[in-house]
Amino acid sequence: MSLWKRVIFSLLMGMVGGACVALGSPGDFWMGLAGAGLLIFLCVFGLTFAWQWAGGGRLLAWMMVLAFVLRVGMGILAGVGLPLWGFDTPQQKSGYLFTDAYKRDLQGWELATHGESLMVGFEKGFYADQYGGLLSLSAAIYRYFSPDAHRPVMVVIFGAFMAALGVPFLLRALTRRWDKRLAALATWIMVLYPDSILFGASQMREPMLIGLMCIAFWGVLTWRENRLWGTLAIVFSLGLTFLLSSMVVATLTIMLGILFWFEYIAPISIFWKRLGQIGLVLGGLLTIVLFGQWLTSAATWDILLAQRQSGWVAKIIEEAGVRFKLPIITVYGLVQPVLPAAVADIDTRPFWYVTAVLRALGWYLLAPLLLYSVFALWTHRDIKNKSMLVWISLFVIIWCLIAAVRAGGDQWDNPRYRVIFIPWLALLAAWGLDWALKKRDAWLVRWILIEFIFLGFFTNWYFSRYLHWWGRLSFWQNIAWIVGLSLVVLGSGWIGSGVKRLITQKK
């Protein structure tokens, strides 16, 4: 696509999209058309440029279009539908999916209209954003693109743009390192994962962080071929991530540092490889010392909230003993959002019922692929780029555990922390599915069967609890059956694999 075609296409999209925003928003129509039209023009032009840079093609175009449209569409649906279908809260009556987004966005509009420097958003007096970056960004969008009226969809449009911008970078990075099928699978997972769409459809930092992580990941994998652009991509992504969340940028820096070391430095010699492993151990110990106290204190408060908000969680902890509180909350967090609970909760509003079921379904489709991937990485040797995948899997495991503990098993914050690193979750899940299909590995079926066992027993537990349809086992009886049957599935798999190896050796 030539430059002029991209300009004309972007202008048309800007005019159509701007008119839709102006018609559906308060304020002057022509100012709304001009501001929203300009923002959409810039977003579409940037996306078409990235699409062409990544090689173009129908597949990538569909991925980017859906990534952008699904998030903007969900944001518009929430803005229009929540005042009608949501709960009677100020947040939902105003069309916001999340309380954090509601408070921060209102304060961003306030900052935009007061004429103060946008840097004021980084001051601690602004309670709605502990980091300040998203608050200042929201204020900038309102000040320069919507000065006459508060149009919350403008921030959603920019967030959707950032999420869609990450798509070509992830696809190109994974195609460079693995193959087109795995790259396409991973990218589709990131584009269509329900929580990624949901958090990307609100005035949250998650879609921007996800896009920046994809750019940074591409920067690491392309650094050998093009050091200038690779370095710029890494520095640019880390810099903007720091403005949005200093805690996430610290985690991302560690992740990228590990990948960079084992990608470029460790292969030089065994000395550098061992030095890197020692450094990782020492770095891990230092991280525990520096952040352990913070994580413990924060998790203690979150665990207390989880006990207060969920009576049955408090009861389970009381029955098991206080010493088991942390592992119980951690497991509870890992299985959130719980699919049987979402399906059984038929008394909630239809909008939130469908949202909860789709969110839970997305996680329970992804989880067995992640479990299988970790299992396969540790049991197979002939794997391309195994070192990188192993370290990514370790990082994902640690991050999911931290998210579960830090959010106290919360069905919103815990998945929100988890979805930030969806590019690597998607990579692992896609690799596992691709590997199982290539090798015809029955272990993926076994892990799926274990999940079905879990879902079957807890479907009975939740349905009998909410709907009183049938009798139910106690919580600990459910756990005993799930663990016992899962061990049978795993044991049969190990026995079958052992017998198969013996037969192969005899031949």
Verbal overview:
This protein has 507 residues and is an all-alpha fold. Among the domains are: 1-43; 44-259, no CATH class; 456-507, no CATH class. The protein is 80% helix and 0% strand. It contains 22 helices and no strands. The protein has helices at 3-23, 29-53, 58-85, 90-93, 99-114, 133-145, 153-177, 180-192, 194-200, 206-222, 227-244, 246-265, 270-309, 311-320, 325-334, 339-344, 350-379, 386-406, 413-419, 422-439, 443-466, 475-506. Helix 5 (99-114) crosses helix 6 (133-145) and helix 17 packs antiparallel against helix 21. The longest helix has 40 residues, at 270-309. It is globular, with a radius of gyration of 24 Å. The mean pLDDT is 85.
Q: Which key phrases capture this entry?
A:
mainly alpha; 0% strand; 507 residues; 80% helix; globular; 22 helices
Concise synopsis of the structure shown:
The protein has about 500 residues and is mainly α. The protein contains 22 helices and no strands.
Biggest β-sheet: count, sense, barrel? none
The proportion of residues forming helix, as a percent range, comes to over 70%
Beta-strand content: under 5%
Low-confidence stretches: none
- List the quaternary state of the chains: single chain
Rounded average pLDDT: 85
Note the overall shape.
globular
Instruction: Tell me the span between the first and last alpha carbons.
Output: 58 Å
Supply the helix-strand structural class. mainly alpha
Number of strands: 0
Radius of gyration: 24 Å
Compressed to H and E, one letter per element, the order equals HHHHHHHHHHHHHHHHHHHHHH
Per DSSP, the total helix count is 22
